[in-house]
Amino acid sequence: TPTGSASHNIPVGPYVLVGIGSDTVPQRNVGLTIESDGSVSGQAPCNHYAAAQTATPPGFKLGEIKTSGASCGGNAGRLEQQYFAALRQADGITYTGGVLKITGPVYLTFEPGYRKDK
After folding, report:
1. What is the CA radius of gyration of the chain?
2. Residue 27: which residues within 8 A CB-CB, separation 6 or more?
3. Measured between alpha carbons, how far is 28 from 7 in angstroms, rounded to an integer?
4. What's the gap between Cα 89 and its chain centre?
5. pTM higher than 0.70 for the full model?
6. Residue 67: strand, helix, or coil
7. Mean pLDDT of 49-65
């Protein structure tokens, strides 16, 4: 369970992606960890990733998303591309009622916890 607070009541710790926009992500195979300095890291379907977060919550703005560079095809690849695109365009972050939302043109919905391995 996430603990502590990076700032503005955004708990640091592990989250699992459960939705992109109005679509659910039943695979639960995308993880996000919010670090105490506000930066993010995690594991998407194929790649590990990390990025600095440069805005003060409730604002949200990631620097370059560095990935492990694995090739990624099929449904996993599509999900990963959608996820990274949404993160790159995101401009807000909230945590309410046990749900973390990263908002922007496409919002991302997370619950506390760890991603499932394949």
Report:
1. 13
2. 45, 79, 116
3. 26
4. 12
5. yes
6. strand
7. 95
